[in-house]
Amino acid sequence: MAPAQSGARARLMAAFGGSYLSSVLIGTVAVLLLLGVWEIALRFFEVPIWLAPKPSDFLARLYTDRALIAGHAFWTSLTIVEGFVLGVLVAIPLALAIVSVGALERGLYPVIVFLNIMPKTVIGPILIIWFGIGPLVAALIVFLMSFFPVLVDSMSGFRLVDRRLFYISRSMGASSWQTFWKVRLPAAMPHIFSGMKIGVVKAVEGVIIAEFIASNKGLGFMIVRASAFMDMTLMFSGLVAAAIVALIFNGAMSIIGQWLMPWSRH
Amino acid sequence: MTDTTMADMNSRIPSGLVDPVGEANATGASINAKGLTKVFGSGENAFHALGPIDLDIKPGEFVSIIGPSGCGKSTTMLLVTGLEPPSAGSVEIDGKPLTAPISEIGIVFQDHLLLDFRTAINNVMLQQEIRGLDRAKFRERADALFARLGLTGAENRYPWQLSGGMRQRVSIARALVHDPSMLLMDEPFGALDAITRTQIRHDLEMLWLETRKTVLFITHSIEEAVGLSDRVLVMSKSPGTIVEEIVIDLPRPRPAHLGEYPEFSKYAERIYRIFEKLGVYKF
Lengths: 266, 283
Prior knowledge:
The complex is a heterodimer of chains A (266) and B (283).
Chain A: H1 3-16, H2 20-44, H3 55-64, H4 66-100, H5 102-117, H6 120-131, H7 135-159, H8 163-171, H9 176-214, H10 219-228, H11 232-260
Helix pairs in contact in A: 3-11, 4-5, 4-7, 4-9, 4-10, 4-11, 6-7, 6-9, 7-9, 9-10, 9-11, 10-11
Chain B: H1 6-11, E1 31-40, E2 47-57, E3 62-66, H2 73-80, E4 88-93, E5 96-97, E6 105-108, H3 120-131, H4 135-148, H5 164-176, E7 182-186, H6 194-211, E8 214-219, H7 222-228, E9 231-235, E10 242-247, H8 262-278
Helix pairs in contact in B: 3-4, 3-5, 7-8
């Protein structure tokens, strides 16, 4: 590459690369460009709305049907929170138990791994018979999806705590309870948290599918119903809303992580 | 460094340090061990790591154990505190047989082992939280130690915001804040650069001179062992046994450049010779 060219490129990188703001800017420009091309192409080829809606159609629908969409988005969010929180509350103590008791590691852990290989949505119809169609079943599916990554990373977190830290806490005369709360759990937190991050990704992925098959509320349910009515515009609006919900949850996780563990940025 | 008189030294002693907090004893404890042995595992996989060794450490004495890697130095430290049970032999602290881990001790390892999620001062205050002692009084003592160790201003910084040397200073403060009777250090300066190591060695010596804890110092550095100790125990390769005991009769505080003492080279030479004879060094 010629020096002049690489110099120009470096300036371009300096102008657009680097800062957080500029990466947001580039992302926004790219999305707007895509939507623009989409809009123009569909207008130019006169594609009927029941086949593929224009961005102007489904973005307008996002506004006009905002009460309906926000209501379903609320249920989807609630389902994510319920399933995910339940997953974390079960996974962390279970991880500690598995790491601490050798018999559990050899006996219980393979069973959990096997259950995890099974596609979670397959359990949906069974859960529907047990609990009836509703957000509860969707939350349980979300729980099953987000639970495993939290379990695995919590296990390695608890295991990787430096043994010598336990010598130090014992030299302070700490009880095993104190050692757990003041040393082991916080020291394992970065690992637990990276498991929770993956868990949230799984949860927002899983929740829509769970609502497709097993719920009567939420964005997944709204999209399936819109599909039944051939309401293509509402389906696309639902997609956008689902993406926004996913963005909010992933973003919230990153912010919580940076707030709880400022050292992890270094 | 110029000669330091006793008066100079006294002027450096902040009053907050002499005041004991909690149940620990301000003066050093004696350590006596007989036939101390550690074997890890059993049957065919058994690994004889240490011993048998005898120890006779007087109250307030600064004793180093020096030896090659993996000779059981660190194990010795864990056995005399009860943090690990011995396979054979017995330990007495202040004449009382050791049956369970004791808490009148402070430990410093090669890695600072500070908790990332606590500030420097809160890492030290963990001692107070776990021991359930008076926070205000303890904080006073922690502040005095921070001042003494040159950590003033670093109280609210997190470990990742401190240099390697400062982290190790915080971990020394954590080991001393509850005024233990024994300080156990496992290659505490091993991960530091030479300049930092010399300074922190001196600071530790000054702290020891005013508090007179019993110190068991594990190292593989001849300079550190001779530069700090009253007595150096030289350990053989695994399974470690004590092959020689060298009394270091040098004035204190000792200078940054130990070469100022011609005797230093003689002590260092002696340890090298022992290592050569043991096959630690092959030239």
